[in-house]
């Protein structure tokens, strides 16, 4: 399994000239903890996360040090902390050293990258441009698929089922499902997406049930939060 099999596509992004309040609102409105910062060519130049916005002057949470710590800290470090807590631009508060993977990166390698660097997500790039993102949540959802395929060759059948279902949903105007939200294990389809209506939810289940080889459909779906509909 590769990054392209589990990533979330259609990634929400922000530009480096966006304001800090705009970035904060983006995180809050979409219920996400970080967002890639991209340039006009869709190249990732940074990442702004909840951690980057934790210490801010507006909320009175900027870092406060005792006078003796100020004395032993370098002026560059102190100036950097001031910029991060007071600047109104995303380019001043974002994390610039962003690790990334390609679509072909094995999921096992992505998991090691997240764990060893203690990060929660990694952008997926194609020719240097952003095409998706893989988070810890994506890997958890794909856990069943990362387990060694059974000797009966169910793994190959599972891949075929998943590809057929995704192809079916792609041509349906009512279906907005990220590939990362569809997993298949031993003929059982697991659906993790959010839905706008009960009809949409049922239609997703029906689409899965109609794929040859599907033994059962497990519904893990949740309704879209009401505050995002207003």
Write the topology of this structure.
Layout: H1 3-6, E1 14-15, H2 20-30, E2 34-38, E3 44-49, H3 67-72, H4 75-86, H5 90-93, E4 101-102, H6 107-116, E5 121-126, E6 129-135, H7 136-141, H8 143-146, H9 154-170, E7 182-185, E8 188-191, E9 194-195, H10 198-209, E10 216-219, E11 222-223
What does this structure look like?
This protein has 230 residues and is an alpha/beta fold. Helix content is 37%, strand content 19%. The protein is built from 10 helices and 11 strands. The chain has a 3-stranded mixed β-sheet with strand order 1-2-3. The chain has a 3-stranded mixed β-sheet with strand order 4-5-6. Strands 7-8-10 form a 3-stranded mixed β-sheet. Strand 1, helix 2 and strand 2 form a beta-alpha-beta unit. The two termini are 38 Å apart. The relative contact order is 0.14.
Defining traits:
CBS-domain, Histidine-containing Protein, Chain: A, 2 domains, 19% strand, alpha/beta, three-stranded mixed sheet, single chain, 230 residues
| Beta strand count | 11
Q: What share of the residues does DSSP label as strand, in percent?
A: 15-25%
Mean pLDDT across residues: 82
Distinct helical segment count: 10
Q: Taking strands numbered 1, 2, ... along the chain, how are they ordered across the largest sheet?
A: 1-2-3
CATH top level assignment of the largest domain: Alpha Beta
| Count of all domains | 2
- So, the CATH homologous superfamily of the largest domain? CBS-domain
Class inferred from helices and paired strands = alpha/beta
Question: Which oligomeric state applies?
Answer: single chain
What composes the largest sheet?
3 strands, mixed
Uncertain segments are 148-153
**CATH fold assignment of the largest domain:** CBS-domain
Rounded radius of gyration (Å): 21 Å
